[in-house]
Write a structure and sequence with these properties.
Bound molecules: adenosine-5'-triphosphate, magnesium ion
Structural class: alpha/beta
Strand content: 5-15%
Mean pLDDT: 85
Low-confidence stretches: 1-18, 298-330
Shape: globular
CATH class: Alpha Beta
Strand order of the largest sheet: 3-4-2-5-1-6-7-8
Distance between the termini: 33 Å
CATH topology: Rossmann fold
Number of strands: 8
CATH architecture: 3-Layer(aba) Sandwich
Order of helices and strands: HEHEHHEEHHEHEHEHEHHHHH
CATH superfamily: P-loop containing nucleotide triphosphate hydrolases
Radius of gyration: 19 Å
Length: 330
């Protein structure tokens, strides 16, 4: 808990400014897809940056031995010191001690190739799936949102992510084969999650590198929407899931930003990719605040001028393209 909140809690709610009387509960989100190259890391970094820009304190945890999230944020995985590997393997290393500050409100727990050995080194450790959860709960850092960038596999690292997370976002591309794999992925996630985290729910699919003009893409989107409609009201982990809005358009700036060690908000703040992640962050915040009973909290939710521009431009573009009729929606 941050100091102002602690003081406010001690003094009672009356000491809180109106917008903080019902502070947001921390959101723990794993970005998972066992398929590689679908946009997990790009979305973790840029959604995280957009949430941080909107005023939430965000922690990103790199759970991938490729260390792409760390690299994307300009952290050299070879010289950054202790990483998530040490958090998982060394009982003496806490989460706080490996946190790097990437930009205002945006903290990162890096990873490097050492993490590849963690799967086998953890094999004999008791409660190995719950180590990250324990370390997170013991951490002093106060974050509003934690995003977990999982590797493209469902091993012990992903399991640690699923044990800590409350919700799962599945980044994917609107391709036929990806759709075929989705049902299996959701079942695996909920089966794996059930053992370690029965409350885990899938909040949605995030379409990445989306091409609105492609008729194939539009067909896949409408099948996805049908899939989630049919799942509504059931007792599956994905019964409340939907296609998240907006889909992230294919945008070369998003592919360029990592080579400068920058988020898209720093590298090209007005490009379509930046707009999509800002709008996505705003909609997630609205959804979360609604769930927390903070729907009228306009002070914290008022979009900045750049977000308003992004929303207006996105809407304008959607309504001026033929694909608008099948644009993704809840
Ligand atoms: N919307 C986009 N437009 C253009 N390029 C993108 C977009 N999203 C991601 N990319 C690029 O696609 C590639 C794969 O993205 P990313 O690394 O985020 O996927 P991933 O799912 O994390 O991959 P892995 O499974 O290997 O961890 C990267 O080169 C990234 O820069
Ligand atoms: Mg990745």
């Amino acid at each position: 808990m941050s100091e102002p909140r602690q003081e406010a809690a001690e003094a009672g709610d009356a000491a809180l400014p109106v917008g903080d009387r019902n502070p947001p509960r921390p959101r723990l989100v794993a970005l998972i897809n066992q398929k590689g190259g679908v946009g997990k890391t790009t979305s973790t970094v840029n959604l995280g940056a957009a949430l941080a820009d909107a005023g939430r304190r965000v922690l990103l945890i790199d759970l991938d031995p490729q260390g792409h999230l760390s690299l994307h944020l300009g952290i050299d995985p070879d010289t950054c010191g202790e990483t998530v590997y040490d958090v998982l393997l060394d009982p003496e290393v806490g989460l706080d001690s490996v946190v790097h500050k990437a930009r205002p409100n945006l903290d990162v727990v890096p990873a490097n190739v050492d993490l590849a050995a963690a799967e086998s080194e953890l094999a004999s450790v008791e409660d190995r799936h719950a180590i990250l959860t324990r370390k997170y709960r013991a951490a002093a850092g106060a974050w509003d949102v934690v995003l977990l960038d999982c590797p493209p596999s469902l091993g012990m690292l992903t399991l640690n992510g699923l044990a800590l997370a409350e919700e799962v976002i599945v980044p994917m591309q609107a391709h036929f084969l990806a759709l075929q794999g989705l049902g299996r992925l959701l079942e695996t996630v909920s089966l794996v999650g059930r053992g370690v985290n029965p409350d885990l729910r899938v909040s949605g699919v995030l379409l990445c590198m989306h091409e609105r003009q492609s008729s194939h893409g539009r067909e896949v989107v409408s099948e996805l929407k049908q899939f989630f409609r049919e799942a509504k009201g059931g007792d599956q982990a994905w019964s409340g899931a939907s296609v998240l809005l907006p889909a992230v358009r294919r945008n070369i700036k998003l592919a360029e930003a990592p080579s400068f060690g920058q988020t898209i908000l720093d590298y090209a703040p007005n490009c379509p990719g930046a707009m999509d992640y800002r709008t996505l962050a705003q909609r997630l915040l609205e959804r979360w605040d609604k769930e927390d009973g903070r729907a009228g909290d306009a002070g914290r939710l008022a979009p900045s001028a750049s977000v308003q521009t992004a929303v207006v431009e996105t809407v304008r573009e959607e309504s001026s393209t033929p694909s608008a009729t099948v644009s993704v929606e809840d």
